[in-house]
Specification:
With 1160 residues, the chain is of the alpha/beta class. Among the domains are: 12-137, Leucine-rich repeat, LRR (right-handed beta-alpha superhelix), CATH 3.80.10; 427-499; 615-780, Alpha-Beta Horseshoe (Leucine-rich repeat, LRR (right-handed beta-alpha superhelix)), CATH 3.80.10; 817-928, Phosphorylase Kinase, domain 1, CATH 3.30.200.20; 935-1147, Orthogonal Bundle (Transferase(Phosphotransferase), domain 1). The protein contains 13 helices and 67 strands. The strands form eleven sheets. The chain has a 29-stranded mixed sheet, with helices on one face. A seven-stranded antiparallel sheet has the order 57-58-62-63-61-60-59, with helices on both faces.
Length: 1160
């Protein structure tokens, strides 16, 4: 063939090809969209695409290959991958079964959307699938279809952070090409299938945060390519299989927060590729195996919260890559091995709460990268080693609760140090002045030691100090004036020392200081009037000093104050009326000073006041009628003044438990209305006045009263028989009156002779009515006529009264800790409550009151504890929380945490702990009994009554917020509750809320505010979203849970209401309705919102906005509880409604439209 013919043929072929292609394309256009394109349109119809990202999916196209999120094979028509992941896509709706028709689909990615419904089993028909990502769609529910196991080419399967239930299909063992299997954070149950051990290609297995139980299959040791085994927060039991030692490629092993027992298998030392080992929060025991020392690549060894015994192996010092060594909360003993000093990359060392002894090895000073050294709750001795001064990167040094004896000046070289906590040791000597020069020091806690010398004069001049707590030492000299130089200090506590001089003006007016404790020192001079410039001050205690001058009226400008304690000083002048402007004041004590003038009527404005003590002053005039407005008052002490008039205010003080009016000039009849104060149960002292007439028979109604003193008055007539029925009385004094007749027979065992003297007409056992001459009042002038018997009796009476007053003061104003040992039960009972009524509480009384823990007395039961109601013989009711008999380390920790948190804080919105008890293997927490049960029962229970109006629910919402604000902002260290829910909010007689159940709480380290936790804690429906994918811990988890409780109060729905779709929480339910255009007010509870009540509707919508902010997905976008309190306060103030809206908008809108009118 010649060249011309060849060219002609080639030309013809090209023309033919072009013609053929053109015809084919024309045919395609005639036929319309390709089959895969039509399938995609079916899939699109099942989605709700709010952003409109799928708007270019058009039926008029010939091919879907240019559509958003779609890629195709080379043929230009067959769909190879679908990528519609990411929060920006915001897809909702269900996953269509039509996905199963895409025969050539290799990759499916729908992660991080709002898809719901079940997983379609038809996915098992996509035989070419290599990768499935459906993670982070929290509304997808149902079980995992076993048909997925037919996908023989599948390499990546991620179904994490859904709401899947049921078991892991055993058929997954057929996925021989599987590399990654992630089922994190679902509700899967059953056991881990041993068949997964046949997945020899598997590299990543993540099953954490589910309800899987049973043993850890030894067959997993056959997955020789496994590099990451993540099984935290399950319910696995049994031992760790030694076969895991065969996993030579394993890099990360996380088995935290399970129920594993036994020892760590030494075979783990063969996994030389390991970089991270997490075995914390289990019940593992035995010794830490020395074979771990072979693991040169391990960076993190986390063995916290187990029961390991023996010594810390010295060979751990060979783990040269370690950056984090955490073996806290175990039973380790012996000394800290000096070989840990070889760990030059170590940044975090936590040996908290063991039984370690000996000295802190100076070799730790060689760990020059160390950032956090945490050794509290051990038995370490000796001085803090000076070598620690080499740790220039150290930011937190926490050595509290040991027996250390000295602070080296070399710590002043730790230029990065922010937190220095060596409190509750046996430190002696001076505070090194070099400490004051640390440029980044924020928190200094050296309290409860034996330090002497002066506080460094330049403390506060070189750093932004926020906490200085030096109480309970023997420090002398003055308070450094520069403590607030940088204007950041929040807590200053130098109480119980030997300090003198004046209160520095700059300290008093520090704008950030909210807790100022100066009590039990030798301070002199006036209280600076500049204290009124401090708008943050919450707690001010300067009692037991030598302060002089008047109480500055400017104190009334500190409107956040909850306590003003100035007793036992030399203050003079009048009580400022401005103190009545403190709306949050709980305790006011200015006793034992030289105050004069009248009691300001403005004090009646203190509606939150719990204790008022004005005793031992020179006050005159009448007790103001306005005090009747103090509805929260529990203790009123006006003893030893010169008050004359007494208004009848008693019927309004229905919560009063202690009333002391002794040593005044009150006269006339005692108001019978005092007998209506049936809450009066600790003390009633009317002694040393000029009361006359008969003792009111109404006093006999005070069935709970324990201490009654009517001595040295002018009472006459017979003692009313009703007083004999006061079954709780333990002390009575009626001496030096003009009483006649017989004593109540029940008093015979209570009264000594000195307590009845001076009543010549009174008959009692051993004395007839004529055996005593007419009585002379101890205040009379006829001393010559007093008999020897009366002189001796008077001395005894004065002694008895003095002793009783001292005891009463102790009962009422200082925490009383008494131990009782029961011979029968060997129970160790501690009563931590100042109320006099609890002083005789015994373990036997608790057993008797609960029928020896009979189930008929149970008021609440959970997997970890049982709560009994104990009705004591004296009429008191207690709640006895008993941790179950199979007490393990975790429950022991919960018990200890409850004692360490609620046992040591006090707030009107926190449940009050009376005491605790340890008996055999039981742990008892003794709490006040709150009669109206839990918020959950009242809102959702079949017999729940109350909270039927918005005002009551708003009161509950604000009360919970106050309690959480106190825990987060005003406790030191701050407390994160971690299990806020409606069933943990208890309601008293007035439906005032009290936060309870602190067994899951944790103390937040302010140096690491976003610290980590070893497990997910909380209740489904209330847990913040971040708890499912991170162990970062912050107070924002409580804020989220509080937002859920707010939604319950607003809607009347449960957090997981039966009316919701399966797996839907109240937060998701609200979001779904709002996204579909439903008015917010339609979600509000009609039981509290009348159709035409505009005011209530507006307030509920504003609180709804607060709830929306609290339940933001991103923790940083949630407000603090202090901000929440501010917003809730603005709800009830119409003039500040615009401020509330600005606050909401400043925090960040929720996307929920609440700017809608109430339907009329």
């Amino acid at each position: 063939m010649d060249e011309s013919e060849s060219s002609t043929d080639a030309f013809c072929f090209v023309r033919l090809s072009v013609f053929t292609l053109t015809c084919w394309m024309m045919a395609a256009q005639v036929q319309g969209l390709s089959p895969d394109g039509k399938i995609l349109l079916e899939i699109k119809s099942s989605f709700v695409d709010i952003p409109g990202n799928m708007s270019n999916w058009l039926a008029t196209d010939a091919s879907p290959c240019s559509w958003f999120g779609i890629s195709c094979l080379e043929d230009g028509f067959s769909v190879r991958s679908i990528h519609l992941s990411g929060h920006d896509y915001n897809l909702s709706g269900e996953i269509s079964a039509s996905f199963g028709k895409l025969a050539f689909l290799q990759e499916l990615d729908l992660a991080s959307n709002n898809l719901s419904g079940p997983l379609p089993k038809e996915l098992g028909n996509c035989s070419e699938l290599r990768s499935i990502r459906l993670d982070s769609n929290p509304l997808i529910s149902g079980s995992i279809p076993p048909e997925i196991a037919k996908l023989s080419k599948l390499q990546h399967l991620n179904l994490s952070q859904l709401q899947l239930t049921g078991k892991i299909p055993i058929e997954f063992g057929n996925l021989k090409n599987l590399l990654n299997l992630s089922l994190l954070t679902n509700n899967l149950s059953g056991s881990i299938p041993p068949a997964l051990g046949s997945l020899h290609q598997l590299s990543v297995l993540e099953l954490a945060n589910n309800s899987l139980s049973g043993p850890l299959p030894p067959e997993l040791g056959n997955c020789k390519n496994l590099s990451s085994l993540i099984l935290y927060s399950l319910q696995l039991d049994g031992s760790i299989p030694p076969t895991l030692g065969q996993l030579e490629k394993l890099r990360e092993l996380d088995l935290t927060t399970n129920r594993l027992t036994g020892e760590i298998p030494p075979e783990l030392g063969n996994c030389t590729s390991l970089t991270h080992i997490y075995l914390g929060t289990n019940s593992l025991g035995g010794k830490v195996p020395e074979q771990l020392g072979r693991l040169q690549n391990v960076k993190v060894l986390f063995l916290n919260t187990n029961s390991f015994t023996g010594e810390i192996p010295a060979v751990l010092g060979n783990m040269s890559s370690l950056t984090n060594l955490t073996i806290g909360e175990n039973l380790l003993m012996g000394e800290i091995p000096p070989t840990l000093g070889f760990l030059r990359d170590l940044m975090y060392l936590n040996l908290y709460e063991n039984n370690l002894t000996g000295k802190i090895p100076g070799e730790l000073g060689n760990c020059t990268k160390l950032d956090f050294l945490y050794l509290p709750f051990n038995k370490l001795t000796g001085s803090v080693p000076p070598e620690l001064g080499n740790l220039r990167l150290l930011s937190s040094l926490q050595l509290w609760n040991n027996s250390l004896s000295g602070i080296p000046s070399e710590l002043g070289n730790c230029s990065n140090l922010r937190v220095l906590d060596i409190y509750s040791n046996k430190l002696v000597g001076n505070i090194p002045p070099e400490i004051a020069k640390l440029p980044r020091l924020r928190e200094l806690r050296l309290y409860d030691n034996q330090l002497t010398g002066t506080i460094p004069s330049d403390l506060g001049l070189h750093s932004n100090l926020t906490h200085v707590i030096l109480r309970i030492n023997e420090l002398t000299g003055t308070i450094p004036p520069g403590l607030c130089s940088f204007g950041r200090i929040t807590i200053l506590d130098v109480s119980n020392n030997l300090l003198d001089g004046e209160v520095p003006v700059d300290v008093a007016r520090c704008p950030t200081l909210y807790r100022l404790r100066l009590q039990y020192n030798r301070l002199t001079g006036p209280i600076p009037k500049e204290i009124g410039q401090n708008k943050a001050l919450l707690y001010f205690d300067a009692s037991f000093n030598n302060l002089s001058g008047s109480i500055p009226p400017e104190v009334g400008l500190c409107t956040k104050l909850t306590a003003v304690l100035l007793s036992q000083n030399s203050l003079n002048g009048t009580i400022p009326s401005s103190l009545g402007q403190l709306p949050l004041l709980v305790e006011l004590n200015v006793s034992s000073n030289q105050l004069s003038g009248s009691i300001p009527s403005e004090l009646g404005n203190l509606s939150t006041l719990y204790e008022l003590d004005l005793s031992d002053n020179s006050l005159t005039g009448d007790v103001p009628l306005e005090l009747s407005k103090m509805s929260s008052l529990r203790f009123l002490n006006l003893n030893d003044n010169s008050l004359t008039g007494l208004s009848n205010i008693w019927s309004s003080l229905g919560s009063l438990q202690g009333l002391q009016l002794a040593g005044n000039k009150f006269s006339g009849l005692v108001h019978a209305e005092i007998g209506t104060m049936t809450s009066l149960q600790i003390i009633l002292d009317l002694s040393r006045n000029h009361f006359s007439g008969q003792i009111p028979a109404e006093l006999g109604r005070l069935q709970l009263l324990e201490y009654l003193d009517l001595s040295v008055n002018n009472f006459s007539g017979e003692i009313p028989a009703s007083l004999g029925d006061m079954v709780s009385l333990q002390f009575v004094n009626i001496s030096y009156n003009n009483l006649s007749g017989a004593l109540p027979s029940s008093w015979e065992v209570l009264l000594k002779t000195s307590q009845v003297l001076g009543n010549p007409e009174l008959c009692y056992s051993g004395r007839n009515c004529s055996s005593e001459s007419p009585a002379q009042s101890p205040e009379g002038d006829g001393a010559d006529s007093i008999s020897i018997e009366e002189i001796l009796g008077l001395v005894a009476t004065v002694f008895a009264i003095t002793l009783a007053l001292i005891l009463a003061g102790v009962f009422i104003y200082y925490r009383r800790r008494t131990r009782f040992e029961s011979d029968e039960s060997s129970a160790k009972l501690e009563v931590w409550c100042k109320d006099h009524k609890y002083r005789e509480l015994t373990f036997q009384a608790i057993l008797d009151a609960t029928g020896e823990m009979n189930r008929h007395y149970v008021v609440h039961h959970s997997s970890s504890s049982t709560v009994y109601k104990a009705s004591l013989n004296n009429g008191l009711a207690l709640a006895i929380k008993v941790l179950n008999a199979d007490l393990n380390h975790r429950l022991e920790k919960a018990y200890r945490m409850e004692v360490e948190t609620i046992g040591k804080v006090r707030h009107r919105n926190l449940v009050k702990m009376i005491g605790f008890c340890e008996w055999k293997n039981l742990r008892l927490v003794i709490l006040e009994f709150l009669s109206n049960g839990s918020l959950y029962e009242v809102l959702h229970g079949k017999e729940g009554q109350g909270l039927s109006d918005w005002t009551s629910r708003y009161k509950v919402a604000v009360g919970i917020a106050y309690g959480l604000e106190y825990l987060h902002a005003y406790c030191d260290p701050p407390i994160i509750h971690r299990d806020i829910k409606s069933s943990n909010i208890l309601l008293d007689d007035d439906f005032e809320p009290h936060i309870s159940d602190f067994g899951s709480a944790t103390l937040r380290d302010k140096a690491h505010p976003n610290g980590t936790t070893s497990k997910v804690v909380g209740t489904h429906g209330y847990i913040a979203p971040e708890c499912g994918y991170t162990l970062q811990l912050s107070d924002k988890v409580d804020v989220y849970s509080y937002g859920v409780v707010l939604l319950e109060l607003l809607t009347g729905k449960q957090s997981l209401d039966s009316s919701f779709p399966e797996g839907t929480t109240i937060v998701g339910w609200v979001e779904d309705h709002v996204k579909t255009g439903q008015m917010v007010h339609e979600l509000l509870d009609k039981a509290v919102l009348e159709p035409h009540d505009i005011q209530t509707g507006t307030e509920m919508l504003m609180v709804f906005q607060v709830a929306a902010l609290c339940t933001k997905n991103v923790p940083a976008e949630r407000p603090t509880m202090q901000k929440v309190v501010t917003m809730l306060q603005q709800v009830k103030e119409p003039r500040r409604m615009s401020d509330l809206m600005n606050t909401i908008l400043g925090v960040g809108t929720s996307g929920v439209d609440t700017e809608v009118p109430i339907q009329e």
